[in-house]
Amino acid sequence: MKHAFWLAGIAAVLCGLVFSCSSSPSGSTGPVTRIDTDVVIVGGGGAGLVAAIQASKLGARVVVLEKTDALGGNTNIAGGNYAAVDPVRQRASGISDRDSVELHIRDVLSIGQYQANPALVDILCRNALPGLEFLESVGVEFEPTVYLVIGSSVPRSHHNKESSGGYMIAQLKKYAEADSNITVYTNTPAVSLIQENGRVSGVQAQGKDGKTYEVRGSRGVILATGGYYGNKELIMKYNSNVHRENPPYGVLDDTGDGLLMAEALGARLVNMNLVQMMGLSSYALPPQHKGGTGNIIVINQNGERFVAEDAPHDFQTYEEIYKQPGDYIYTVFDQKAVTASGNGAALDAEIAGGRWFRANTVQELAARVNAPPEALSAAISDFNSAVSAGRDQFGRTNFSGGRIDTPPYYISGKIYPQLRYSLGGLDVNAKTQVLDLQGQVIPGLYAAGEVVGAIHGAYRMSSHAIAMVTVFGRLAAQSVMGQ
Ligand SMILES: Cc1cc2nc3c(=O)[nH]c(=O)nc-3n(C[C@H](O)[C@H](O)[C@H](O)COP(=O)(O)OP(=O)(O)OC[C@H]3O[C@@H](n4cnc5c(N)ncnc54)[C@H](O)[C@@H]3O)c2cc1C
Q1: For 78-92, how does the pLDDT look when each residue is reduced to its tens digit (9 = 90+)?
Q2: What is the C-alpha to C-alpha distance for residues 415 and 348, in angstroms, rounded to an integer?
Q3: What pLDDT score was predicted for residue 453?
Q4: Is ligand 1 within 6 A of the CB of residue 427?
Q5: N or C: which end of the chain has fewer CB within 10 A?
Q6: What is the domain-level CATH number for residue 335?
Q7: Is 279's C-beta closer than 6 angstroms to any atom of ligand 1?
Q8: Do 342 and 481 share a domain, yes or no?
Q9: Which pTM does this prediction carry?
């Protein structure tokens, strides 16, 4: 991988080497430096790097444009968990003959409330295991067993060696660095697409030096710019109740640039009214948990439960939180949950940092967050009765973590809903070609990753974005190369 930085003067040096220079396109003033390659990839996160490596494997020269000074995007801060039907690891986890790609497809469609594009779900689930094997082939190692996540009929969530998207990015980056076909330009946001005779043939990008660059891809352009967490205006345009004052939980450099650039050429956006808010489950367990809801309960400032903690963390759930005083929640659990999570040390660090609290009695626990102790005791006691009955007034069905009865007890600090995933995005066909308002292909333009809409529908199951990034990153590269 050639790693290029836009420094004053460098373009002149490189012009004629990896660059060729052209005159300015119509409308702009001043010289424009032209770069010619086979495939242009906008965005150097998970989908962009996977697409770059795959395209290179198919013989392409690839230029990756990344707007920030580092590769990785949201993938870098993700858990890196990856969903796939995987008979070998599922057998090793004691699950045999209970899963199939068809069941996986049904799970994704059903939890997405049938608002996903079935053709894309089919592609995701059928290619998830080959995608995982692709990651292994470039150095990403996975644990030998799988885990259950909310919405999945059976365990199929894979944790990589470090349970970290940062590890996945590091491995992809290392692999790409050794590949002379791939050139990465950081600090180089793409600002618009170049379309000639109806075909997208490149992008205009802004160099750190203030100069305009025209990057031409003879095969086409792949948009891999991620979601739009960082674009409050865009979020509020389609979903005015979402953002409030809470910052999204994601990389704020993902501002929907790919969507907007493509929309300017007439691309259709789908499911823009759908977003995913930060999951109760993610907050409910100690940091770095491994799936499930344990014996966690969620309470409001009055110490009362109000929601099924094992419900998918979709917008409706957050509407419930928005009805609570202050728009926030606390999560409560006992030592059993901590022991089961195997992450007591991480929780200790949270407690030392003042983000979580521990107490030997429920009364003391309530006092830590100024909640009424009688109400919290009643909430726990009602929950314990529900565990015994196997039935709950809020509709919770998962009681596998048992009663809350083993001190010490734990309570989180205030938890506010935060945007976690933008479910809307570009409409693409089964070759990841971007479609226009009439459903026609915009020639030369492809998309992969969170910039694509309608892959998950109304709810993205945990572990399905990293799989999606990998599957569609590869597919976009194959399609742009005519495979
Ligand atoms: C905290 C957190 C944890 C998560 N954990 C998981 C998990 O364990 N499993 C799972 O499946 N999903 C997880 N997700 C979701 C998942 O991380 C994302 O959906 C996924 O990483 C998106 O990948 P991407 O390649 O589409 O975008 P990104 O990885 O965000 O990459 C987009 C890149 O494009 C760049 N870019 C944007 N605009 C431009 C432009 N104009 N020009 C050039 N570059 C541009 C950005 O800077 C960025 O580097 C998590 C999300 C969060 C926030």
Answers
A1: 989 999 999 999 999
A2: 18
A3: 97
A4: no
A5: C
A6: 3.90.700.10
A7: no
A8: no
A9: 0.83
